[in-house]
Amino acid sequence: MKRVLMEQGCEVVGQEDRPSAIVGAAHRLRPDIVVLDLDNGSSYELAQLVRGASPETTVVLWAREEDLMEVLEPVKSTSRLVSAPIVERLRGELSGQHVHE
């Protein structure tokens, strides 16, 4: 994931494994985007905590082994699903070329 982000020209400012560290980093760093692993069962709860810590941050829930990505944008109460091909869609999200489905 870090490689994909860096190839897209993104500056990766943090990489945390523990949920509390992710929320703390989001609060402290106020990143444009936080990418969470959708394969983790508590990702939705963590996404809400990240949004609370940094409301202006877009949260992307990405299932690496599936063709599915869920995007939670700032100020919106609902998410949008983005499907295959996932790496190209992630790159589009990172570059601001949103495809609404």
What does this structure look like?
This protein is α+β, with helices and mostly antiparallel strands. Helix content is 37%, strand content 20%. It is built from four helices and four strands. The chain has helices spanning 2-7, 19-29, 43-53, 86-94; strands at 33-37, 58-63, 68-72, 80-83. It has a four-stranded mixed β-sheet, sandwiched between helices. Helix 3 links the parallel strand 1 and strand 2 (58-63). Helix 2 (19-29) packs parallel to helix 3 (43-53). It is globular, with a radius of gyration of 12 Å. The two termini are 23 Å apart. Mean pLDDT is 79; it is low at 97-101.
Helix/strand layout:
Blueprint: H1 2-7, H2 19-29, E1 33-37, H3 43-53, E2 58-63, E3 68-72, E4 80-83, H4 86-94
Parallel strand pairs: 1-2
Antiparallel strand pairs: 2-3, 3-4
Helix pairs in contact: 2-3
Short description:
The protein has 101 residues and is an alpha+beta fold. The chain has helices at 2-7, 19-29, 43-53, 86-94, and strands at 33-37, 58-63, 68-72, 80-83.
Nearest-integer average pLDDT:
79
The radius of gyration over CA amounts to 12 Å
Binned, the helix content reads: 25-40%
How do the helices and strands follow one another from N- to C-terminus?
A: HHEHEEEH
Q: How many individual helices? A: 4
Shape: globular
Q: How many beta strands in the DSSP annotation?
A: 4
Name the structural class: alpha+beta
The strand line-up of the biggest sheet is: 1-2-3-4
| Main beta sheet strand tally, sense and closure | 4 strands, mixed
Q: Percent of residues in beta strands?
A: 15-25%
Distance between the amino and carboxyl termini: 23 Å
Q: Spans with pLDDT under 50 lasting ≥5 residues?
A: 97-101
